[in-house]
Design a protein that fits this description.
This protein is of the alpha+beta class. The chain has one domain: Dna Ligase, domain 1, CATH 3.30.1490. It is built from three helices and seven strands. Helices cover about 30% and strands about 35% of the residues. A seven-stranded antiparallel sheet has the order 2-1-4-5-6-7-3, with helices on one face.
Length: about 150
């Protein structure tokens, strides 16, 4: 199965991976795991536009998305100027099953474009990306982050 990812998505993922690695290094230097915030990346603006406290409700949303994974997404081709990417760091890693693949996720990235099905991005321990299809109602999450639910 081939996963197609556009160049801008790879750039965003690499940028966030650098942030993840920097965050992990800072936490290790402090001797503790910091409670990392939820971040909202506006694709059109090309930057993080909002940071929110990562509360229990965000943890429940992310756990629900991961519990509803229906499999690997065979193609990932979101629009260049459409939507948002949400990063939700998990308090505790969650094991995700996608067919025969099992991945333990520490962060969940939600790719949201109102006109297309949403997708999830997670990384395994070696930082290998997995794009996942899932079935979950995003309206409560979108209201919480301040976006209109479609």
């Amino acid at each position: 199965m081939t996963i197609k990812i556009q160049k801008w998505v790879l750039a965003a993922m690499l940028g966030w991976m650098c942030l993840i690695m920097l965050d992990s290094g800072a936490a290790a230097a402090n001797g503790a795991r910091d409670h990392k915030p939820v971040q909202i990346f506006d694709i059109q603006a090309g930057k993080v536009v909002k940071t929110m406290e990562n509360d229990q409700q965000f943890q429940q949303y992310a756990a629900g998305w991961l519990a509803s994974v229906s499999g690997l997404s065979p193609q990932f081709t979101p629009e260049n100027k459409c939507g948002y990417v949400f990063r939700v760091p998990l308090e505790q890693p969650i094991e995700v099953k996608a067919g025969e693949i099992k991945v333990t996720a520490s962060d969940v990235f939600l790719f949201y474009c109102p006109e297309k099905p949403a997708s999830l991005l997670i990384f395994d321990a070696e930082r290998k990306p997995y794009i996942l299809s899932f079935k979950s109602d995003l309206k409560p999450f979108l209201r919480k982050v301040g976006l209109p639910a479609q």
